[in-house]
Design a protein that fits this description.
This protein is mostly helical and 65 residues long. It is 63% helix and 0% strand.
């Protein structure tokens, strides 16, 4: 027969030094970081699409210079 030891933890109390303003600023910082990541990803995708379209246009319409 196995003996099971129950481990109980008391809930952690939130840090009382943080204010609502610091919480809002941290949420805004997180949102800004996400926005920066998404803008960087979309600009990379757009750049790749533009390169592909330029290459396709050069294949379809070669310049005879």
């Amino acid at each position: 027969m196995k003996h099971v030891n129950t481990i109980t933890k008391t809930p952690l109390i939130a840090n009382e030094e943080t204010t609502d303003l610091s919480f809002i600023l941290s949420i805004l910082g997180l949102g800004f970081d996400l926005l920066t990541t998404f803008v960087g990803a979309f600009s990379t995708v757009f750049e790749g699409l533009l390169t592909a379209l330029t290459t396709w246009n050069q294949v379809k319409n070669p310049s005879t210079t």
